[in-house]
Amino acid sequence: MRLVDLLRIDRLGLTLLSGKNNLDREIAWVYTAAHVDTERYLDGGELVLTSTTWWTSPEDSERFVAGLVEAGAVGLVAGAAALPRFPVDLVLACDRHGLPLMAIADDVSFSDVSRTVIDAITQRRATAAQRVLEHRRSILREISRASSADAVLSATSLDGGFDVWLMSAAGRRLAGRTPLAELELYELARGAREAVGATTVLETSAGAVTVIGDPRRGLTAQLMACLSDHRGWSVDTHEIVDYATEVARARLDQAAAENADVARATASVIDSVAHGRPVDTRSALTSLVGAHGRYRCVEIRCRPTSVDHAEFVAAELAGFAVTDVEGTRHATIPVDGGIAVVLALPDAPADDSNGGGPELDLEQWQQRSERIAQLLPALTRVAVGVGRLGEGVAGVRRSMVEAQTAAVTALNRDDRVLVCAISDLSTAAALLTALPEEVRADYRDRVLGPLIDYDRVHRTELVDTLTALLASDGSMQSIADARHMHVNTLRYRIRKISELLGRDISRGQDRLDVEIALLIHRMHR
């Protein structure tokens, strides 16, 4: 109800004395004032009723009106039956402060005015509540009928008027629409993890974002994010967002269960190919993209070995891969020592001249892996191996072997987090890193051990001499000149080297064996 609506009710006999330009104000409630200091009892939006029994002087009028305006009162209805005449200074004070003032007739009670206002407000609230209830029911029905998490969050976003999305503990978008870039989503998720409480508000480049946590799941948490500050939401908005969060998470869990079925079928095919058993490609890989589809394998290994942590890294990287190339599907498969991910890519476009399909952005994958690894402080190594793109079952098997080789290589290097593609293994040193460190060390000791021990005991430099000899293609004179020694001294050292090694380095096979051992020796220094 507005002040002008109240003034038009003839039976109340109200007379406007001041504030004709502010009669469109909405009345939130009504309050009867018996004291000059009334402002502390007001919340704002009230129509104040007073019999002016508090009035003793013009100063009281100024004090009373100023307090009402400061507290947010929208209007004043005053009676002066207890006074000789209506106080003119009250009218002047209302004029100065822009507060609408209405005089009530002596034969009309304040209870009539109060009841009229309260009845109108109650009716308006009941009507509004009914509209809200009907709207909420409509939205909740739409949400419950949505077949996917994206559809759930789309309905929620349209209703709330703000973007809504679900993201992983690492900030990867799982469903819904977000204006934030990948790195800012990661920072948002990190801020939510570090915050106290299940719901927090964080500032972003797009504005305030409310993040609703999922504390039961830890690393597999699905965080609900809304581009809006929840502290300004109505009760209905809170209920709709809470319900949408529950339904969207359920839809994601349902999709994950369906994907797990595909993963089991795919794992069965891979195992059959590995052991030479017949494979019905139509019943397994076809569930990804087809029997002649294009596949790439990625393998994740961790130290200390942790299947749970490897699965988390695999899920995040596979999720990004699906986002990077539209139409990509994936299956996650446990393997010895880690987790393998089979990425099934859509058919190549007609203008794909190289036929190889999109290449992974290894630098981007390295950055993603490093961010994900920050959530796993207990790990000393996170290794990601990437195989080449292949077609059909044979292509899957080849790509999986390549991914395994690249993952082992990455695991044996010094980097805490490393993404290694099979294309990176183009040197002997790179290939050797695919072997376990203890295997490499054992080979070095069996080939070079006697020479290394002799140098240590006699303080000689026969290993360095051997390295120089092989690097110079056997030119003893150039080596002798570079080391400021007589060539006969060098010949003696070479004979001693051959004697200790038990090999003739002038022979091709012996020379190759020794060069590999020297390469490993340099790698382990």
Structure description:
There is one protein chain. The chain is an alpha+beta fold and 525 residues long. Helix content is 49%, strand content 17%. It has 16 helices and 16 strands. The strands form three sheets. Strands 11, 12, 13, 14, 15 and 16 form a six-stranded mixed beta sheet that branches. It has a five-stranded mixed beta sheet with strand order 1-5-4-3-2. A hairpin with a 2-residue loop joins strand 8 and strand 9. About 1% of the residues have low confidence. This is Purine catabolism regulatory protein. InterPro entries: CdaR-like_regulators (IPR051448), CdaR_GGDEF (IPR041522), PucR_C-HTH_dom (IPR025736), PucR_C-HTH_sf (IPR042070), PucR_dom (IPR012914).
List the helices and strands and how they pair.
Elements: H1 3-7, E1 14-18, E2 29-33, E3 46-50, H2 58-71, E4 75-78, H3 88-97, E5 101-104, H4 110-145, H5 149-160, E6 164-168, E7 173-176, H6 182-194, E8 199-204, E9 207-212, E10 222-226, H7 235-274, E11 294-303, H8 307-324, E12 329-335, E13 338-345, H9 362-373, E14 381-386, E15 390-391, H10 392-411, E16 417-421, H11 428-432, H12 437-458, H13 462-471, H14 476-482, H15 487-501, H16 508-523
Parallel strand pairs: 2-3, 3-4, 4-5, 14-16
Antiparallel strand pairs: 1-5, 6-7, 6-10, 8-9, 9-10, 11-13, 11-14, 11-15, 12-13
